[in-house]
């Protein structure tokens, strides 16, 4: 409750200085308590996912012992039944203890449907298309956090398989850059999205979390894949798109936090922020991980912030193992990047002190 007391204290001080200022104390208390409740339920959701995975493993083990894997038709039929059961639970139930059950049924259904379709000699690309359609259907129908989150992961994993089966790996890095832009736009306009009360606003939390997880997995995947499939120009183009997203994030954040900041300074700070990432133009993973780090810091998502730190450290470590550049060149590039970030820090600190005074 320390945060709540601090907020009420600040509002009281503002009201004392300006008697015309009005606020609804009960509404503020309700919003803060709702935020605390949401944070506590997140822990239960993580526990539900772990419990669901264990139940899936146990259930599939029983099916294996029962020899049901010997019949493709039986697996497909059971998978479809489990799929509709999980969707029904996802629509009707809002109880946390049922999240583990619906998640377990859903994961089992996807696994059984995929294996069942494989028994009918369908190609991997065809199976992936069917699974991606099922995951999109789940996202559009249910409002359950866990099912939407897992469906997003399943959809993009299926999409990745389709890309590799179609031998169009060159679009991986541009696709990752587009996803970074989508996350930045969603989180920068969170209040506007939530105010609309549409399908996106009702699924905002799991969609943002799912996309961030996908981007994090994509960063590691692209880094491990290396530059065997993409030309330097495509890598540079994708990185520039991510740098543009980072610059947009800085621009909107400075514009909202510092009302008195003139346009020339705003543009100058934005350009400096973008230039800080230019030295890593041939390593898309570093700017992408830094964007996640900044999103977590700016919007108070501790998980995103921690994830961004770990990804940034990992990507920079891998960057030093890149034999395409000499150690001296990489050290100079990292030094320039660090120097620019220090300039950003001191500039923002100065501007904050100036605004306070």
What does this entry look like structurally?
The chain is mainly alpha-helical and 357 residues long. It has two domains: 125 residues, no CATH class; 185 residues, no CATH class. It is built from 15 helices and no strands. The longest helix has 41 residues. It is globular, with a radius of gyration of 24 Å.
Distance between the termini: 29 Å
SS field, number of helical segments: 15
Tertiary shape? globular
DSSP, total strands: 0
- Main beta-sheet annotation: none
> SSE order in H/E notation?
HHHHHHHHHHHHHHH
Low-confidence stretches: 31-40
- Provide the gyration radius in Å: 24 Å
What structural category characterises the helix and strand content? mainly alpha
Structural domain tally: 2
Strand content: under 5%
Determine the fraction of residues in helical runs and give it as a percent range. over 70%
Average predicted confidence as pLDDT: 78
